[in-house]
Amino acid sequence: MTKKELKDFLDAKVAQYNRPSFLESDPLQIPHRFLAKEDVEISAFLTATIAWGNRKSIINNASRMMELLQQAPFDFVMNHHPNDLDRLAPFVHRTFNGEDLCYFVKSLQNIYRNHGGLENIFSQYATTTSTQTAISAFKQVFFELPHPLRTTKHISDPARGSAAKRINMFLRWMVRDSATQVDFGLWKKIGPEQLSCPLDVHSGNVARKLKLLKRKQNDAKAVLELNKNLRELDPRDPVKYDFALFGLGVFERF
Fold first, then answer.
1. What is this structure's pTM?
2. Which residue of 29, 37, 90, 187 shows the fewest CB atoms closer than 10 Å?
3. pLDDT tens-digit series, residues 156-168
4. pLDDT for 38 beyond 90
5. pLDDT band at residue 254, thresholds of 50, 70 and 90?
């Protein structure tokens, strides 16, 4: 199909999936349970961190995380006592366990106390055209405290070749406009034009079928290639096409 036909097709799929009904089976429903900015972004960050595998399991375990944080993630992060972390020990989602969650809580406290919060870190290190360097810088800040070596694998780094799917997804949630009541549009220091599409097996396979992506691996180079092609379709909001690629792959088996 021509570029115009492709754009029209994908725009129609964005309109189909970028609506509140999308949340019924998506982990993004978890941060929608909160109202305060810090509660939303912390619950979103933790949910995105475990967003791999069965989606029902992701939602159930993210809900469990919020229960362990007493349904007040920001308050727990900022005001917990060391003994409070014992309640997190039984948590497990695939390879992410209670030890990892304990460090995440400690690191988030450090980020809000000493670095101005999550938005401030990402916006400080983002370029005018990309958030990929900011993801790498975020990982350095995130692990500046003494930490278990095992936990470092749960924050990806584009500088080391990772597609950083889960963090790119988290950034989409925080940055893209909230008009459709799906993404939040909470962060104003980063624009949607700076975002990268969360690239996984589903979106990658669909992108290749639509000739938006040639590279076979779902890695940082593939993200850059997909970025370029999606920006040609919509330079102001290229990551809206995540809804189309994901929906076509997961719901329509395109």
1. 0.96
2. 90
3. 999 999 999 999 9
4. yes
5. confident
Length of the chain in terms of residues written = 254
Query: What are 75-95's pLDDT values in tens digits?
Result: 999 999 999 999 999 999 999
Task: Count CB neighbours of 67 within 10 A.
Answer: 11
What's the Cα-to-Cα distance from 19 to each of 16, 54, 237, rounded to whole Å?
7, 22, 16
Dmax (CA) for the chain in angstroms is: 60
pLDDT-derived band at 6 (thresholds 50, 70, 90) equals very high
- The DSSP code sequence of the chain is --HHHHHHHHHHHHHHHSSGGGGGGSGGGTGGG--SHHHHHHHHHHHHHT--S-HHHHHHHHHHHHHHTTT-HHHHHHH--GGGGGGGTT-EETTEEHHHHHHHHHHHHHHHHHS--HHHHHHHH--SS-SHHHHHHHHHHHT-S---GGGGGGS--GGGTB--HHHHHHHHHHHS--TTSSS-----SS-GGG------HHHHHHHHHTTS---SS-BHHHHHHHHHHHHHH-SS-GGGHHHHHHHHHHTS--
Residue 1, pLDDT score: 84
d(CA 19, CA 165): 21
CA distance linking residue 182 with residue 140, whole number of Å: 30
Torsion angle (degrees, nearest 10) of CA 58, 60, 63, 64 = -110
**Count of alpha carbons within 13 Å of 74, Cβ hemisphere only?**
14
